[in-house]
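Handout, page 2. Input:
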Amino acid sequence: MRSEPTAPAYHAAPPAAHYSPAGPVPAARPGQGKAAGPVLVAATIAMGLMAGLFFAFDVSVMPGLAKGDDRTYVTAMQNINKSIENGLFGLVFVGAFAATGIAAYLEHKAGRRTAAFWAAAATVAYVAALIVTMGVNIPLNNQLAQAGDPSQIQDFAAVRAHFENTWVATNMLRTALCTAGLAALTRALLLHSRASR
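Output:
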């Protein structure tokens, strides 16, 4: 009696290794990934404080002073410009730039490119505000100071006219730029939070 031929045994081949044409995705560096979040939060707070400061001048300080006489206007602005030159303001003023730029760098290094883009956009907006400040507002503040003590100024109307309209207009521009920077940082924070889950 013939035996039926036995079918040859087949062994399943091991599954092929997954191949990615783009190569392995580099992992984020732990130190940078952890630091990015707190720096981004600090940048957002500092940017918000600067936007709020400029906005306060737009909606209350300058409109209030505009209703006063020329001597009161010049005297008040000289005092405000002196008072704002303090360490706390300097920390926020410079810190907004430093923290925003560092946040953009850390987000980029951690592989969160979209969050880095928005943080970089915020940095550009704040740099533009710094350029306006250094190029227009600070020189006007210096000229107002150089007018001398109010007791020695002869023509308050001329001093005020040279200062007021340009300073107010450029401060509105600074408000808009810092507000745009704040919006960009808020977007970066949202993207950072999503990517970190």
